[in-house]
Amino acid sequence: xxxxxxxxxxxxxxxxxxxxxxxxxxxxxxxxxxxxxxxxxxxxxxxxxxxxxxxxxxxxxxxxxxxxxxxxxxxxxxxxxxxxxxxxxxxxxxxxxxxxxxxxxxxxxxxxxxxxxxxxxxxxxxxxxxxxxxxxxxxxxxxxxxxxxxxxxxxxxxxxxxxxxxxxxxxxxxxxxxxxxxxxxxxxxxxxxxxxxxxxxxxxxx
Length: 206
Known about the structure:
Blueprint: H1 2-14, E1 17-18, E2 32-33, H2 41-57, E3 72-80, E4 88-97, E5 102-104, E6 117-120, E7 126-132, E8 137-139, E9 148-152, E10 154-163, E11 171-179, E12 181-183, E13 186-187, E14 191-199, E15 204-205
Antiparallel strand pairs: 1-2, 3-4, 4-10, 5-9, 5-12, 6-11, 7-10, 8-9, 11-14, 12-13, 14-15
């Protein structure tokens, strides 16, 4: 930014016009008249305008850069069943993975691998029941002898929810999907996909 501003200032200096009254008199012949707006409020405005244009030209992709290994995102939370106090419903969490990424299934092929797990925070008025995970897909990865049990593309996790007879709707259950994303044999530190399961409304990612 400083180099650009210096260039612009230098350009302005070269554009200064000679003072006709001082040309050829041998005295102060190297002095020049400044453009009438330089040093004035208009000049400061022009300088600010050039700075603003320069800032807008800088690449902004880095500001939105994702953390390595953040390959999962929430598509939606689907509520199945009649939502009423005392009722039983099922929350279906739809997870999307970026192309060419996979995560270990809930039952990895090796005990040392980190499974994909849905965690529900304790919430008054609702008692979580059975959580069902999809079966893992067998995938052979170069550099690993035994096939992996993974999820890729889109997958769903279902959670049975038992509503209390005195539950006050709508209610919100903070939820987290813990996963470890990999590309081939390269895996990244575990991540947490945080979102809300809203009963009597729509779920949304935090």
